[in-house]
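Model: You mentioned two targets. I'll fold them one after the other.
Researcher: Yes, keep them separate.
Model: Target one:
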Amino acid sequence: MIKKLFFPIIFGFVLLFFGCGNRELKEDAAKVGDAMCRNIDIMNKIRAANPADSATLQKLHAQAHQLEIEMTIVYKEFGDKYGEKTKDPKFNKKFNRELRKAMLDCPSLSKKDRDQFESDLKE
């Protein structure tokens, strides 16, 4: 009886453990992707702004600075959470895949980058 239940229980724990890990990685990739997307958006707005409109440029640069602080925090939290795993090529491959998926939702992503990300995800 115990032998019959042992393997299904272990299998269940493995699925639960790895499922949570993948979900967490997806969520963390989404956080990084969101920050990157907002950064792309702000940089596009700065490039498109009228150079003579100092008030708009000042506002956009302040937003870019605030986002830079936020991105530093997000990257630090990611590094603290995953530590040595970030040196593992398999982990980085998984993370980069999840990040590309998250970035596809970014409306500010260039067509060239979008095409590249879609191509990368097909592999």
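Model: Target two:
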Amino acid sequence: MSDRHAEAYAFGDFQLDVSERTLERRQPPERIVIPEKAFRALVHLVRNSGALVTREAILAAVWPGVIVEDGNIGKVIHIIRSALGDRSDEWRYIETVAKHGYRFIAEVTRIEKMVAAGSSAAPVPKAGAAGRSSAYDLYIRGKVKAGGENITDTNEAIALLEAAVGLHPACAGAYVQLAWAYNTRSFKFTSQADGRHFRENADVALAKALDLDPNLAEAHFARGLILWTKAKGFPHEQAIRSFKKALDLEPGADETHHQLSMVYSHVGLLEKALSHVDRAIALNPNNTMARFRVGVYAAWQCRFEDALADLKTVPSEVSPLLVERVRAEVYVQLGRLDKAGAIIDAFLARHPEDEGGSLTGVRALMLAKTGEGREARRMIARAIELGAGFGHFHHTAYNIAAAKAALHEPGEAVDWIEAAADDGFPCYSYFERDPSLDPLRRYPRFIGLMSLLHKQWKHFMQVA
């Protein structure tokens, strides 16, 4: 049987071996024993080193499905700090973020270790005669949360799935879902610089899943997700191949159809995108984000009234950033700027950080269309400031391009269209129809760029 990777980390004077459930001081050598709940909390903090870990995430990771007093978190943190020799006057390992949670601040290095595999991959833990196992419950709850595209669900998914693989380390399916959650956290809710640890964790979780079961459809699905990110350069063809491989192994996987539709849509294959997202909904009518994408693809076909009707069926809570951005964009296209403005104002009041500069970019477009050039340019600068480095910035870049077109700045508009295309959004069929780009239709550089994008679009047609 083949060997498999063990999960171990080094930080400061310590080594944490998750696979062996040990914490050791390296010099002088000493094994440190801490209670299981403290060990789980430490593992969760180390896996997410450098990032804020909320109190809610710690509760989900350490006491999944159990109602406990909030003071229990402080107790396990105190135990960990005592074990690591952390002092209250100078934290070296765990920083308290008042009213929010904790951050592991020591530099963490992953240790490459191989251990002999005692058996082949274990299946997802199932319910026994006496009821569902704890690991199975964690896996299912984490899988449901991983399908959400908001930061709260994503953080909860990570906590639940980390706990699941802690209880059942040979469960390939749980590692797949964990890779998905890590990837979502990095791609959609963290800048490229801050998301390094989440990306590394996603790669490691995927490697474990494939080591355990190379023919697991979900693992090839996760590979497609991780490939199709800003950090990997949005290699559309490779991502398409991974998702198609997953569908060859499991044709009835609704979420694989959904995610493949997203790649097809971004490269302008909108009919194929709709075909796959419709299949996803037929397989699972409860796939709310797939229903959301029906509205997105209608908008990119410039069927704006249809898009609005579809988007009204999707609750904003499933992904406030995405849903509200697209709704606002559609209202701008329909000329209903009062509606667009109200959505933008409400979102930014609740989420002033505006990850990716998403709604700020739509506001810049709205202002440009009403001739408020000075304020539009200020919003463009603000969107760039907020969005640089975020995975979904290509949509903000495209809205900046449309704003520049409305401001009669064709050179800069084409620069931003090219930037959006190079950064994962070469959606030729939308660019060809979008009325916001009409001021550019006779501009030579725009004509040249569209000719190149058309050739690329024809190539993707052959790949699909």
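Researcher: Noted. Anything on target two?
Model: The longest helix spans residues 444-463.
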